[in-house]
Amino acid sequence: MAALLALLSSFTWGTADFLGGILSKRRNAIAVIGGSQPFGLIAITIVALAFNKFWFNEQIIIYGIFAGLIGMLALMAYYQALATGSMGIVAPIGSLGVLVPLVYAYLDGDKPTTMQNIGIVAAIIGVVLASGPEFRGGTKSAPILLALGAAVFFGFVVLFMAKGGQINAPATVVVMRVSQVSVMLTLALVLRTLGGLKREDVPLLAATGSMDAIANVFFTTAASIGMLSIVSVLGSLFPIATGILAWWFLKERLILIQYIGIVVTMAGVVAITSG
User: Fold this and answer.
1) Domain ranges of the chain
2) How far apart are CA 90 and CA 197, in angstroms?
3) Cα separation, 212 vs 10, whole angstroms
4) pLDDT of residue 66
5) Side-chain-facing half-sphere of 129: CA atoms under 13 Å
């Protein structure tokens, strides 16, 4: 069940990123992130109330706030890296954030089987390859450092989400969204702008924010019942879903190494789930 929920989180995250990416082609990316957060907060609040999970304690609040605020820093660093550097270099670096919870899980005592360990390695390599890494061509050091910083931030977000999810998954996500909405609302008031968002953008914003929040619930729930080493890797496969959706609906072309990455990732998933 944990593996299935983690895979569902990847698919849902990937779909949310795909929808947000479509809107980001005509609107400011940071504005899209900020504009989608309130809808995510509404969605996760409904889920928490429906499942009688709308209760909080000190640990949930701490983990949720850390995950929310660090998540905002991660997104800002990542988008800045994408804007100033080569996407083919930045994206694979950003996907390495999974190493943070993975290392923590091993140090904390997780002991996957040999087959699962092979699958974990294959899945990580596969998702990096599926991001379309560029092996040639230079880029400035600043975008690389920003991408590395974003990867580390993303890793700690996953870790704090997992820790909070072990207590109350929906409530942890509620706190995350409250902290993120508070930050974005403050920025909007200070800058006196919505970043160019319009009323016609509401459907995509609502879908993006809601799916992102639901993905967080899938992941935090998976982390509460399964090994973090396995859950964190399976939950990090969302770039695969985004890439496949872009290929299917937008007819974006994938390069050979991305096809190889998808195959390697799928082999890794089979090894993890069968191990």
Assistant:
1) 2-104+138-226
2) 27
3) 10
4) 96
5) 17
